[in-house]
């Protein structure tokens, strides 16, 4: 993995350099130096980012399957793209995301909650998979 790959994946996961630094027990400057290529990437940190990327992909795939099944239920059409195209924006599928970090109650494999931005990034991937036909709302809880 190149430093550019590393930074791109981190950013696509909605993870700040500070969050990653805290998760792996280093200073934020170390993360920046990995991303600049000034320091070699640590294997365990690359594995963590790769694992989180796979986790997000799996979560998006599961949510897409749930939405697809929900859309196809009771419909004669088996073409999900056709079903999506027939929806008005008011009837698009909806997913909820946390607005702020204090709205997150799901600890990650790192033992600490992922930031709210991780879930918003996953919703963005889901929205792309649905050709933009997804309503994204915030969870009812609001952080301070």
Automatic annotation (TrEMBL):
It comes from Mycobacterium dioxanotrophicus. CDD domains: HTH_XRE (cd00093). The keyword rRNA-binding does not apply. This is HTH cro/C1-type domain-containing protein. GO terms for molecular function: DNA binding. The keyword Electron transport does not apply. Residues 6-35 form the HTH cro/C1-type domain. Signal peptide: none annotated. Pfam families: HTH_31 (PF13560). It comes from the Bacteria. Keywords: Plasmid. InterPro entries: Cro/C1-type_HTH, Lambda_DNA-bd_dom_sf.
